[in-house]
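A note from the maintainers: we've had questions about how concatenated examples are separated. There is no special marker in the raw files; a new sequence line simply starts the next protein. For clarity in this README we add a label.
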Amino acid sequence: MMLCRVLVGCGAFLVASCSAGSETISTTTLSSTSIPKATTTAIAPVTTVMTTPENEALRSVDLRPIADYSKSLLIEIPFEDVTETAAWYSTPQTTLTHHEISDELVHGGNKSFKAWVTGENSENIEPDGPNHRGYPTIQLDKGPRACVTPCLLSLWVWADIPTVSGEWYQIATVTPSANDSWFPAEVVNVGDEGWLHVMHVPSYGKSEYVFQRRDLLFPMKQWVKVDIVLKYSLDGGAIAVFQNDELINVSRIDPTNIAMTETEDGRLLNQMHFGMYGPPTLATGVIFNDDLAIYELHD
């Protein structure tokens, strides 16, 4: 699988080549529009004592079932209006890759985020290519503030993206990096085999898992709840992915794969994106995101 990287900054686009396991590099100017004000709520934890392979996998990487944490809301993005993400970089519209706020399919509220592909990038014309990219980034370090991990990313996804052998599409990309490199990053993908998994764990270019469900496919043409629990630490970290509340993947993150943040404690989730991201050979497909919420988790 291929991973491309967007570099976000001020200035003109800079495009670099992309190969398997590498990212594309570009820069642009950020909007000065303010982002939604973050609010904080608290939810009391519920202790989970049942011993299962899933719970044991989580505990082995110092994570827990989501219900065992209390959580405070950092930010919500309901995808009702483009102003919600206007303060952050968004990939450019192209003749092949498109994205918009849409009322075509909605999980909650009146609108959702839609991104779609209308042809292969065989001529390498995508400015953030060669991979297809259609999404707004979420740059928490630029506001309201970085998420102190462990964090929970919760969103709803509707996808109709046909893949052939060797193709994939992304559900989420996350990184502790606060600079333009977006490196290192962990990527939650659906590959041609049809199930959710994580790339670049425990380190860049690898896909080694503590736990992986291969019997539960990612449903197409229906709303799917995706929850990602992420923990960064200078001593290492971990990521866990849930599909409709069922644990799908647990992976370690090597200490060498964690970028130093401005606070130099290595715990911060600074940037992420969702939307459309797939290889240049992808010829068609559409994905919707809705009701995104980002929480900080507490013992």
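[label: protein 2]
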Amino acid sequence: MAADLFYFLVFPGLLFVGITGGFLSWFDRKVTARVQFRKGPPVLQPFYDFFKLLLVKETILPKHGSPVTFLLAPVFSVFGATMAGVFILLPLFNITTGFRGDLIVVFYLLTIPSFSYIIGALASGNPLAAVGGSREVKLILSYELTFLLVITGIIMKCGQQFEIDSIIKVQQASSPFIGSVSGVLLFVVAIFCIQAKLALVPFDMPEAETEITEGIFIEYSGTAYAFIKLTKYIMLFILPSLIVAVLLGGFRLDGINILWSMLKVLGIVLLLTLIRNTNPRIRIKQAVRFFIIWMNLIAVIALVLITFGY
């Protein structure tokens, strides 16, 4: 019991993923600033933002809404992201081997933050938040099937293994899955799915500050919004880590491989940052078509190639 609490609250749980995600958020903002010929924030700025919201800013409750549901939604989002992070990072750090089917459990846990945002938006009673929630629902329905096809491809490539630990060991015993044609296709599809899960441009329609003024988060402030910030920090770390685990051979924690493992995660975050800084926001109809037609098509091609050994 004590070990489980340590895993959830300290390492590789809430404290670790929160701090690491904060540094990755700084990296994302710094690269964004450099792309736009700006200096960018100091390294601790994400933590300043979080603690200012947590300890200084007032939490204002919407007048026409459900206060309890409104406040609980960010808590559930942090819980879902943290639990997913624990199940991803335990086998990555070779602490435990996980359990049979943990990859499927992670798939469902990663949906909790998005659904929490929707519930919180609807509980606020704000019409702009409802518009953002509606967009989030449509986005989830478009990319979740695609992400499930990516996971199906991973399971097929490792001989019907459902455990993250087994998937990592299969790659380390031979070569990372990205070294094949089907692996490259799955990686491309997975990157766009992560971009949508993180609601980064071009898939930031649920927030769209220039259209619906932060949409699903329009009524959030203070401590409640701090929890949303924390969830975003955590997701920015655990989603690239999941891709590293299932496609890039996982982490190797010996010698120079430690640096190489860190560079894998940083490389994926850099790619996500460059995508969001070189593309305009698209309409929700375009995003749905992009995933349901093109990304699903690429994922299905990858599945066919896996069947033929490619």
